[in-house]
Amino acid sequence: MASAKPRVKVPKTAAKDEVITIKTLISHKMESGQRKDKDGNIIPQQIINKFSADFNGTRVFEVDLEPAISANPYFEFSMKVPESGKITFTWVDDDGSTYTEEKSIEVTG
Amino acid sequence: MTFTRREALGLGAGAAVFLATGLRLDPAAAAAEDTMKMVMEFAGGQEPAAGKITLSTPEIAENGNTVPISISVDSAMTADDYVESVIILAEGNPNPGVATFKFSPMSGVAEASTRMRLAKTQKVIAVAKMNSGAVFMDAKEVKVTIGGCGG
After folding, report:
1. Distance (Å, rounded) from C-alpha B73 to C-alpha B130?
2. Both ends of chain B: CA-CA distance in Å?
3. CATH no. for residue A64?
4. Phi and psi of A80, rounded to 5°?
């Protein structure tokens, strides 16, 4: 599904070693593989099966998703900010495509 | 519609047989067993202890398609004492697996929220595994008014 659109909310600045909250959302139908079309055929499963967040190349947080995650998967999690840098968010689709988003955060004070 | 005495007795016997077999093949019990198997697999054969992990769910979910849940584990989250992963299971869904969260010392705190689907009223389970190998579990019953698995 090429229309998957990621949205991420990260504060622009943080104090050193501050724990920030990150919210992410991606538009995706998360087809569970349990539904049937009007002819009674099962609609094949197609979900986002993995989500990850890396800070300057180090894995911070990761989720393995099952079809029981709602459409437009939403995650809220935390990160301790050691220094200024870049957070990379990656979503992996069952069809092999990946969606990424990047946010910079600056350590002040 | 009226029954003769004989028909009524026959029906009653039939119902009793149906109930008896129904109990033996209770799919809910099988699902709970499957879920426990997944918990044990995740826990590496250990019996998960209570405490440390808190699973927050609404008591009543009006829409089973998006049920907000969050987990929080009591941990220092330092390089030598942190929560490795948390698994979420729903024993009344077609497949019990929901999600596995993997944390790191850089997480700062072991907290995460998401939205999940629930097919019907059931127990949701969260199990946390520490880097030391210790395992903790919490479970909440969620009442679902409208199930969320399509069909």
Report:
1. 10
2. 34
3. 2.60.40.10
4. -95, 125
Q: Is the dihedral of CA B8, B9, B12, B18 positive or negative?
A: negative
Give the residue carrying structure tokens 């009674």. A40
> What's at B94, amino acid-wise?
P
Give the separation between CA B136 and CA B116, rounded to whole angstroms.
21
Which residue is listed with tokens 């990260």? A10
Q: Domain B27-146, what architecture?
A: Sandwich (2.60)
Per residue of chain B (151 residues), what is the pLDDT tens digit? 566 766 666 666 655 555 544 444 456 666 788 899 999 999 998 899 999 999 999 999 999 999 999 999 999 999 999 999 999 999 999 999 999 999 999 999 999 999 999 999 999 999 999 999 999 999 999 999 877 765 4
Residue type, B54: T
Task: Tell me which residue range forms the domain holding A97.
Answer: 6-107
Strand order in the sheet with B110-116: A6-9, A18-26, A74-81, B110-116, B67-73, B53-56
Put simply, whether A77 touches B (Cβ < 8 Å) is yes
Q: Smallest CA–CA separation between A2 and chain B, in Å?
A: 22
DSSP string, B90-148: ETTSSS-EEEEEE--GGGSSEEEEEEE--SSSEEEEEEEEETTS-EEEEEEEEEEEE--
Torsion angles phi and psi, residue B18, rounded to 5:
-60, -45
Pick from B66, B100, B104: CB nearest A64: B100
> Between residues 28 and 67 of chain B, which touch chain A (CB distance below 8 Å)?
65-67
Assigned token pair, B102: 């993997």
Contact A76, A21 (CB under 8 A): yes
